[in-house]
Amino acid sequence: MKYTKVNNAIITELSKIVGVENVITDADVLDNYAHDETPLYHTLPDVVVKPSATAEVAEIMKLASEYVIPVTPRSGGTSLSAGAVPVYAGIVLSLERMNRIKEIDTKNLMVVVEPGIITEQLGIELAKHDLFFPPDPVSLDSCMIGGNVAECAGGPRAMKYGVTKHYVLGLEAVLPTGDVIRIGGKLLKNVTGYNLLDLIVGSEGTLAVVTEATLKLLPLPKVVIALLVPFKCTEDAVGFTTDVLKVDCMPAAVEFLEGDVYRLAGQYLERKLPFNEADAHIIVELDGNDKNLLKKQYDKIGDIALKHGALDVFVAESAKDKEKVWEPRKKTSEALKTLTNPVAREDLVVPKDKIPALLQKLKECAAKHEAQLYAFGHLGDGNIHADFAYPKDAHISDERLAHMRKEVYEITLELGGALTAEHGVGLSKIRYLEMALSQTELELMKQIKKLFDPQNILNPGKIFTSL
Ligand SMILES: Cc1cc2nc3c(=O)[nH]c(=O)nc-3n(C[C@H](O)[C@H](O)[C@H](O)COP(=O)(O)OP(=O)(O)OC[C@H]3O[C@@H](n4cnc5c(N)ncnc54)[C@H](O)[C@@H]3O)c2cc1C
User: Fold this and answer.
1) Phi, psi (rounded to 5 degrees) for 164
2) Rounded distance, CA 205 to CA 196, Å?
3) pTM of the complete model
4) Both 301 and 352 in a single domain?
5) Ligand 1 within 6 A of 297 CB?
6) Which atom of ligand 1 is nearest to the CA of 426?
7) I need a labelling partner for 284 at 20 to 30 A (CA). Which of 94, 118, 315, 320 fits?
8) Neighbours of 251 (CB within 10 A)
9) pLDDT tens for each residue of 341-356
10) What 3-state class would DSSP assign to 44?
11) Better pLDDT: 247 or 87
């Protein structure tokens, strides 16, 4: 596809739509929109445009459609699959100004929001009404609902509460042609025709620009308790996780940090963490409304942990202790970025019983390629984040990196897993997609993309190498 480069005449048109102050062409500022949180991907857009309303988004898409200009939607820019990188330059459509909560509906337990609201900020506002939106990506202090919807984000609490798609009831979205559609609404059940809602959720900004979302809410649990459980090896930690899920108290989260990751987080936080010598650390979060019941549950979980060889069970009830327990997990990504040189940040998922085999094989793969493996993530979901890193000054050729990643995916697929659980295909996994999907599936997906976006202008170069 031949795209038009954004020229002065187009900049003038864009300025008429959103106001000159919301059209960015300054190279230094453009650089902030040239990358997301995925290492190694960087492309400068021609222009960044910041609309404040759906009608403006529609006008921008009409203009892009008329001149055949690539448009990359962007919310918080925390993608870990290079989904927000404008690989063909063109327009970055930043939704950051569309950040209003339009309605908190306390009768129906729903909220109507614009895409640019920061996920954590939404949580703070909802808590004032004793409500919550369960999906909690670890990036929640900077990612936005638009990105969460586009990626179908998960997070630690996905184990008990599910992922973003389980909470999206309605969407307003702008199609690549500039047409505005409204799908679903404040309805908990609706099977009128094909499920376009679920098609757009998780479509990585390739089918439509989300401009409004109606989300289901739950009553905010009043009591939350965190447990830190160190183990001497990963096998023990996995055995514990499997047994914990059989008990009649579903934890809200079961998170995992391998010993090396935990120690790196400690180094980053500049404090000696408790149980520093252990080789696997599990954080269990329990939530509910009855403190005594939760206490009984964590006693039970503690017994299971000790049966599986836990070195200790630390119970955190105060806000300060909970923060201490969670901090290494919340800062893992930052610690890895600062103290190592991650060249691949994988988001693998396998059936839970295959996790020890997955970790063993990934370690062998990393050793073969002289890389260091850092494994952590949402163990309760079988979702392991595996960062492959090199020392800061080391260099790995593109060819070797591609070879290593292919092996990683072969290992995962052989264990019955998938390439990505929650970060998406984006740009970073694009060349490996054919390993995971049949030609029939791929062709169906491409036809859907063509139907929505015949000129391939919306987030082109993502998910598919060619259409
Ligand atoms: C430290 C860290 C921790 C993370 N933890 C988790 C985690 O626990 N769980 C998880 O699922 N992910 C996690 N992520 C990944 C990332 O935060 C999520 O994918 C998040 O949903 C992206 O939201 P965003 O607002 O930053 O989106 P962006 O990065 O801006 O965009 C992501 C994708 O969505 C598209 N998009 C953005 N806005 C719109 C819109 N309005 N309409 C259509 N398309 C749009 C973009 O084009 C892009 O393809 C983590 C990332 C980091 C850096």
Assistant:
1) -55, -40
2) 14
3) 0.97
4) no
5) no
6) 49
7) 118
8) 27
9) 999 999 999 998 899 9
10) coil
11) 87
* Residue span of the structural domain in which 190 resides: 101-219
CA-nearest residue for atom 13, ligand 1, is 137
Residue 317, classified by CB atoms within 10 Å of its CB into exposed (0-12), middle (13-18) or buried (19+), is: middle
**241 plus 321 within the same structural domain:** yes
How many Cα neighbours within 13 Å face the side chain of 197?
A: 26
Residues 112, 193, single domain; the answer is yes
What is the rounded CA–CA span in Å between residue 254 and residue 101?
A: 31
As a whole number, mean pLDDT of residues 436-451 equals: 97
- Contact 73 CB / ligand 1 (< 6 Å): yes
Question: 78 CB less than 6 Å from ligand 1?
Answer: yes
**Residues 6 or more apart in contact with residue 314 via CB below 8 angstroms:** 227, 228, 229, 274, 275, 325
To the nearest whole number, what is the mean pLDDT of the chain? 96
For residue 394, the model assigns a pLDDT of 82
Tell me, using a 6 A CB cutoff, whether residue 144 lines ligand 1.
yes
Which of 79, 113, 168 for mutating ligand 1's site (highest number of atoms within 8 Å of CB)? 79
Positive or negative CA dihedral for 252, 257, 261, 267?
positive
**Domain assignment present for 313:** yes
Residue 24 belongs to a domain with what CATH number? 3.30.43.10
Number of domains in the chain: 4
Polymer length in residues for the chain: 467
Say whether pLDDT at 456 is over 80. Answer: yes
In a domain, 418, yes or no: yes
How many DSSP H helices and E strands does the chain contain? 16, 18
Looking at the fold, whether 421 and 349 belong to one and the same domain comes out as yes
**11, 30, 73 from 85: Cα distances, Å:** 20, 12, 9
137: nearest Cα among 360, 455, 383: 383
Closest CA to 326 of 159, 155, 161: 155
Average pLDDT for 293-297: 94
DSSP 334-397: HHHHHHSEEEEEEEEE--GGGHHHHHHHHHHHHHHTT-EEEEEEEGGGTEEEEEEEE-TT----
Are 57 and 172 in contact, with CB atoms under 8 Å apart? no
Q: Which of 97, 127, 161 is the last residue of a domain?
A: 97
Q: Are residues 209 and 105 in the same domain?
A: yes
- Give the model's pLDDT for residue 395: 81
Judged by average pLDDT, the poorest of 125-129, 286-290, 391-395, 428-432 is 391-395
Question: Among the three residues 307, 328, 349, which one is the final residue of a domain in this structure?
Answer: 328
Q: What pLDDT band is residue 1 in, cutting at 50, 70 and 90? A: low
Residues 29 and 89 in one domain: yes
Task: Examine residue 445 and state whether it is found in any structural domain, yes or no.
Answer: no
Residue 456 in any domain: the answer is no
